[in-house]
Design brief:
Among the domains are: 83 residues, Phosphorylase Kinase, domain 1 (2-Layer Sandwich), CATH 3.30.200; 179 residues, Transferase(Phosphotransferase) domain 1 (Transferase(Phosphotransferase), domain 1); 136 residues, 3-Layer(aba) Sandwich (Rossmann fold); 109 residues. 51% of the residues lie in helices and 12% in strands. Strand 15 and strand 16 form a beta hairpin. Helix 13 runs antiparallel to helix 14 and helix 24 packs antiparallel against helix 25. The radius of gyration is 27 Å and the shape is globular. The two termini are 29 Å apart.
């Protein structure tokens, strides 16, 4: 078939063949990308059961959109032979990768986490793989694991294929129930995963034999050889996870892939030195603090109930041996009617704290309940009727009760309070919490109202460090979203960050804010990196600092290190929209557009109108040549971002590349008119001129962007943006990079 054209696909070469398919490398001539075409063998094309199984594979895989699952683009038929169009993975099967590349134990665990993430996504979609094995897991050139070959998969809504007395799958990786032809559920995949992980780490199969019957007997009746007999230096936590995954009875395994994934992540944090909590182990107690319900007559008091929960999270995070779900993850369940046990499973924790706050004048009524995720029963509950001035004491008592109930060790002396008292002025504290509430909305009005609250708090307590940090963060965001010009925001942010540093030289938040100023205004990359790393040293679980350090490292061309920081930030704040979007941006910068598409789609599943994700999605579609979708997504981004004009330049560029110069020039006119009333980044003008092929005008606007310290010169990673390839070799562009203390060698195209 080499050289043959099938629809829009031109066959380049044959990649391989197996019992259920032949795979070819092809070029998608329409979208200008490489794809893999998997054909059902001719000998099976007339067999109804084989065709059904093959089509089921395509449907199952197409239903998933996850970076750890091979993407299916289409299912079609050619000359009577069904075929599946998939993303092309430049890599090798998992077994071959472990044998030839000899990755470290840490790298193998990272691969395992990726496989578990893909498996969890399949299970959440109601799909059971039923043939998970090293040959069905590919490792891409970027080191990411990709699950493929869902030929035996079935959805819960479909009839089960496994029947009593029949087995389908690969003997060495079957679960005991699958080996005996019994009905299977998601826990069968977890057994197969345990077998795969065992082989990844030891190079040996967990259950072996000279023939299939012997292997199946071993799976059903015998124990696997302990890992220590192969490698004595493997951490005990790994053996424990594998041991639980390979339990003969499904009820004794992990209850879900999400639960298994949480165990793997916790183990990795422990092996890496306790990123999230300083000191953790497999048996460490874990907790998620849900946003407290506002029971006050005034709905605007919601900021206080949210703030109380957030401060408890901050306090509990400081306790060794206690794993605490991040704020963004816990708050993702706000307003959702879900069973506490389901929330606990999704967050990978053993206990959940929920409560309510009723505030009337200076009186507070706070209730709190600690619930065991396993059975849904209360472990502890209390009600506090106090004066507003006692809010810190209430937080101390709640955290102390949690510590006592879960039997964990406090920092320092056993009775040392865990809740920080950022100010002695309760009214200033209340204003700070109100400011945090407005800040989290990321709107122009919200940021200004947050600044007002912080300024009032500072008037009451000039030494309130976190209020100064809050002002810096709001000014920086106002600049990032183009609500204010750099000149009207950065100097105030710098002043506020400096004041915070003066007040508390051990504040992780202050170091992070100052580092952000170094990035956006000073272009002092070394100083920024020092401050980010100091912030992380002070608070290893500070996801924002890790996320922005990843941004900095990517800008400087340290791609692997950037990806590592982004992955850590994502593990710390798995439900954070901006952190997950930044992770997708890392893939976009590396020109891995299919992967970026999957990642940003995950973000939009969490919040469909998240403007930055819609904007990135539009940019990805443009690079894939799907201009109609690109324009549609950028229009949605423009609407979602409201008064910000950051998406306009991207939209104009996409229109121009689509060949619609008239629409592109209309957006140019709109931006010129808007710039008379408010700040518009010169980069937006430059992007449209680039799309129109007007190089000189584009470079002129880029020079203005540098002159004005336009924030989006950094946030768009201007030198790794593929839309700027047309000017990358231009001496004027090189000179602009020099002015930003960058070089083309650092920031050129990734692949």
């Amino acid at each position: 078939m080499r050289g043959e054209t099938i629809g829009q696909y031109r066959i380049i070469d044959k990649l391989g063949a197996g019992g259920m398919g032949e795979v070819f490398l092809a070029e998608d001539t329409k979208l200008k990308r490489k794809v893999a075409l998997k054909f059902l063998p001719e000998s099976l094309s007339a067999v109804a059961e084989a065709r059904a199984r093959f089509e089921r594979e395509g449907r199952a895989q197409a239903a998933l959109s996850h970076p750890n699952v091979v993407v299916v683009h289409d299912v079609a038929v050619h000359n009577g032979r069904p075929f599946i169009v998939m993303e092309h993975i430049d890599g090798m099967p998992l077994g071959e990768y472990c044998l030839t590349e000899s990755p470290s134990v840490s790298a193998r665990i990272r691969l395992a986490i990726g496989i578990a993430e893909g498996l969890a996504a399949a299970h959440r979609a109601g799909i059971i793989h039923r043939d998970l094995k090293p040959a069905n897991i590919l490792v891409a050139s970027d080191g990411r694991a990709k699950i493929c070959d869902f030929g035996l998969a079935h959805a819960r809504a479909e009839a089960q294929i496994t029947r009593n007395g029949s087995t389908l799958g690969t003997a060495a990786y079957m679960s005991p129930e699958q080996a005996q032809g019994q009905p299977v559920d998601q826990r069968s995949d977890l057994f197969s995963f345990g077998s795969v992980l065992y082989e990844m780490l030891t190079g040996q199969r967990a259950f072996a034999g000279e023939h299939d019957a012997a292997i199946l007997y071993s799976i059903i009746h015998e124990d696997f050889v302990p890992l220590s007999q192969w490698h004595s230096d493997l951490p005990q936590q790994i053996g424990d996870i594998i041991g639980r995954s390979l339990k003969k009875k499904p009820d004794e395994r992990y209850g879900s892939a999400d639960e298994l994934l949480a165990a793997l992540r916790e183990m990795k944090r422990s092996l890496d030195g306790g990123v999230a909590a300083g000191q953790t182990d497999r048996d460490a107690p874990s907790i998620a603090v849900l946003p407290f319900t506002n029971m006050s007559a005034d709905p605007e008091n919601e900021y206080f109930s949210d703030g109380l929960a957030e401060e408890l999270i901050n306090a509990l995070t400081k306790i060794p041996q206690l794993h605490v779900a991040a704020r963004t993850s816990s708050f993702a369940f706000k307003g959702r009617e879900l069973d506490i046990r389901e929330i606990g499973r999704k967050l990978g924790v053993g206990t959940v704290l929920e409560g309510s706050v009723r505030r009337a004048g200076k009186r507070l009524r706070v209730t709190a309940q600690l619930i065991n995720v396993t059975d849904g029963y209360h472990l502890w509950a209390e009600r506090y009727d106090r004066e507003m001035e006692d809010v810190f004491a209430i937080q101390d008592e709640i955290s102390g009760a949690i510590v006592s109930t879960l039997k964990v060790r406090l920092v320092g002396e056993d009775k040392r309070p865990q809740v920080r008292r950022p100010t002695a002025n309760v009214e200033a504290y209340s204003l700070y919490l109100r400011g945090r509430h407005f800040w989290s909305g990321r709107t122009e009005d919200g940021l200004q109202r947050a600044i007002d609250c912080y300024q009032q708090a500072i008037a009451l307590d000039p030494r309130f460090t976190l209020a100064h940090v809050g002002i810096a963060d709001c000014r920086l965001l106002s600049c990032s979203y183009q609500f204010l010009s750099p000149a009207d925001s950065i100097p105030y942010a710098r002043e506020a960050a400096a004041r915070a540093m003066t007040l508390d030289s051990e504040s992780a938040e202050a170091y992070e804010s100052r580092a952000h100023v170094h990035i956006l205004d000073d272009w002092d990359w070394s100083a920024a990196e020092r401050d980010f790393r100091r912030a992380i040293a002070l608070d290893p679980g500070y996801a924002t600092a890790r996320n922005r350090l990843g941004l900095l490292l990517s800008l400087l061309g340290h791609i692997d290190a950037a990806l590592e920081e982004s992955e850590t930030a994502r593990a710390l704040e798995p439900m954070s929209l901006i952190i997950n979007n930044a992770y997708a941006l890392r893939a976009f910068e590396r020109r891995e557009f299919d992967r970026a598409l999957n990642l940003v789609s995950d973000v939009l599943e969490m919040k469909t109108d998240f403007g930055p994700a819609r904007m990135l999605l539009g940019q990805i579609y443009e690079q894939l040549g799907d201009y109609q979708r690109a324009v549609a997504e950028l229009h949605r981004a423009k609407s979602a971002l409201g008064s910000s004009s950051v998406a306009s330049g991207q939209l104009g560029h996409a229109y121009a590349k689509w060949g619609n110069d008239e629409e592109a020039r209309l957006i140019l006119e709109e931006l010129h008119e808007l710039s008379a009333r408010r700040f518009v980044s010169p980069l937006s003008f430059s992007m449209i001129h680039l799309g129109l092929g007007e190089t000189e005008q584009a470079l002129e606007w880029l020079a203005r962007a540098v002159d004005q310290r336009s924030v989006w010169m950094i946030h768009l990673h201007v030198a790794s943006d593929p839309r700027l390839d047309a000017v990358r070799d231009n001496p004027s562009f090189t000179a602009l990079l020099g002015r930003m203390n960058l070089s083309a060698a650092q920031t050129g195209p990734r692949r």
